[in-house]
Amino acid sequence: MITLLLPWNYIAEASNRDYINVVNIGARPDGESDSTPAFQRAWSWACNAIRPSTIYVPRGSFLLKQVVFRGPCKNKITFQMDGSTLVAPSSYLSLGNSGYWILFIRLNRLAVYGGTLDARGAGYWSCRRAGKSCILIN
């Protein structure tokens, strides 16, 4: 019973405070565990909130697979990264030929503060320098 109530408690807390800590909803700051579902949940809650929301990403490395943060949203959203790094999958091939890793689309009133994006581009550039046919990621 408690396990079933936990997700609801996080939603209510996020709605009351307009503050969503991605670790509290399942993101792992180890750089290896897929945190994409937690970031998508945080985005969904923030995007549908009546008041302005902050998605808080604490210190650590968070693996994000290909993800789209889509609007329009009901209110302003702030991504606050506090010494955190968003890390792409280890192989650029996992992104396919989409042309993006993280995409924000159809949004107004979005602010992103702090943090680092690590797209792990070394594999792609190594392939290009070797003159091989590499999937282009724009």
TrEMBL record:
<protein>
    <submittedName>
        <fullName>Polygalacturonase-like</fullName>
    </submittedName>
</protein>
<dbReference type="InterPro" id="IPR000743">
    <property type="entry name" value="Glyco_hydro_28"/>
</dbReference>
<dbReference type="GO" id="GO:0071555">
    <property type="term" value="P:cell wall organization"/>
</dbReference>
<keyword id="KW-0961">Cell wall biogenesis/degradation</keyword>
<comment type="similarity">
    <text>Belongs to the glycosyl hydrolase 28 family.</text>
</comment>
<dbReference type="Pfam" id="PF00295">
    <property type="entry name" value="Glyco_hydro_28"/>
</dbReference>
<keyword id="KW-0134">Cell wall</keyword>
<dbReference type="GO" id="GO:0004650">
    <property type="term" value="F:polygalacturonase activity"/>
</dbReference>
<keyword id="KW-0326">Glycosidase</keyword>
<dbReference type="InterPro" id="IPR011050">
    <property type="entry name" value="Pectin_lyase_fold/virulence"/>
</dbReference>
<dbReference type="GO" id="GO:0005975">
    <property type="term" value="P:carbohydrate metabolic process"/>
</dbReference>
<keyword id="KW-0378">Hydrolase</keyword>
<keyword id="KW-0964">Secreted</keyword>
<dbReference type="InterPro" id="IPR012334">
    <property type="entry name" value="Pectin_lyas_fold"/>
</dbReference>
